[in-house]
Design a protein that fits this description.
This protein is mainly β. The protein has 8 helices and 40 strands. It binds sulfanyl-(tricuprio-$l^{4}-sulfanyl)copper and dinuclear copper ion.
Amino acid sequence: MSSKTPSRPIPNPVDPDSRRGFLTATAALLGGGAVAWGLTSCGSEDSPSGAGGVAPVAHAEKSKAHVAPGEHDDYYGFWSGGQSGEIRVLGIPSMRELKRIPVFNFDAATGWGADDWSKALLKGRISGDTHHVHLSYTDGTYDGRYVYVNDKASARLARVDLKQFEVDAIADIPNSQGTHGIFPQRHKTGLVLCNSEFRSPQPNDGRDMDDPTKYAAMHTAIDGETMQAVWQVMVNGNMDLCATDYEGKYSFATCYNSEGGVTLEQMMGADQDWLYVFNLANIQAAVDAGKTITVGDFDKVIDGRGGDNEFVQRIPVPKSPHGVNITPDGKYAVVSGKLSPTCSVVDISKIDAVFAGSIKPRDAVVAEPEVGLGPLHTAFDGKGNAYTSIFIDSVMTKWNIDLAIKQFNGEAVEPVLEKVDVHYQVGHTNASMSETKEADGKWLVALCKFSKDRFLPTGPLRSENDQLIDMTSEKLEVVHDGTAYPEPHDAVIVAKDKIHPEKIATRTGSRYEMYEKWAAEDGVDLKTANEVIRKGPKSVRVYMTSQAPSYGMTEMRVKAGDTVTFVCTNIDNVEDLSHGFCLIGHDCNMVVNTNGTNSITVKIPNKGMYWFYCPWFCHALHLEMRGRLFVE
Ligand code: K7E
Ligand code: CUA
């Protein structure tokens, strides 16, 4: 089976001549101010290397990323689902998809977005755009409690409870459009910082609509426990990605449009933009002292506009920076240049001096290695090396931070150690435990925006390609191509021993508070009730139990025109035995997990008999698990 010797000849991975041509063309476009983004290189059916030039991975991959049937992965991967609005949970290194956690979307399988509780959380908004997933921290590493994820489309932050692997809270972010980068504090589950990417009128009530000079963006702190907005700092520039330090002193935001432009040309005008650094203690002190203003409905806004002040300092970095990532030792912030072929390394220990005014902001930059065309995000191995995703070049660049600092200081050293081709146009990257002090340098993922010729074609909309790279072998090696439904942005890779999910529903949290309140109102016990309770002239609550292979009630009667809430409780106490409730013809379908309760409310307009059934395979007599609703 696995052998280092491939059974057929492997074509040359990348034909150097055609590759050079494609890079030059791209660079020329960039230089000309057009939005090249290297997409010229993606449009073709051919790989960059020309016909037949795809680089299949050596067959050795099986021995590296292969996880045998019945065996478990070593890591959980938490993937944002992009404009699908969900989170995906993968096993690493197998890249097997273990679960999809619906968040800002409607999910027909589970009824998320249609059931009563998720509907209340989502307030009816069932589309979203998740970009950044991060887990809660204690002492610089994952504490296994929560996952936070942003919604760029509707300015929301959701939290997933990692005991149940389900969303348990959603916060609205005030005064924000294009909520993009988020990052939780790392010293404890404290604030989750959220960036507005799009500058907009403040407040957005019809004023200043056509005067971009007055637009501003918000750096928002959400309390990671209560999921309430705590404060916002208003700044002039677009904020893109976000990061926090390891001590709870600062948060960081890249600003790619210091020009304040609203058109592409305007946004790309300046050769220099900023890394914003926020001083959390100074902000909190001002909030406590009441030095806040009210913007819209939110009264805890600090005005940080106009430049460098006690709340925010601007560190100049080259042209339109994108990602900002903190090294696992907490020493440096690495800013990936996007339209500059460099990464800027900011020494976090110098930031107090920047706020004190004793050094210039730019003096905090201690290295600026050239890493390739279009650097976007950076991961770490915990051994002093950085791995930057390079969008236009379609490579991952490995470079050494200490060597980069030496080079910046004038020593004749080369910090770039290695580049590996990825396929194609990589966006985010991350490495196992890279965003913690326990970065272990085992696995690196390249989340590629285009798969082009790597998979069987599937019409105009194709898979993306999440590639897994082995960081432990002598040379970086792509060991797995993983299909990804468009479009995951970010991912984190978490050692499996950090995560301790429950095996059945524990019936805690706000979902169950709601059901227990209903049951108390109606004088029933959710685990035994099988009753139709009329709540009003046109409203009915139905309580029922489910236990394989039958419902506690197989006949129920309501009236035409009633709005009916079906509350179903799964009283099977066996692991992995979900039931569901589907009422035929009424767009009414939900899952009811082991030991859990779920509810869904539908209007029943017409007389007749309608079957309801269990859509989740639960028993040899699963097909018989059904009953009749009589509508009189
Ligand atoms: Cu780089 Cu939204 Cu994190 Cu996409 S963002 S790549
Ligand atoms: Cu219960 Cu199928």
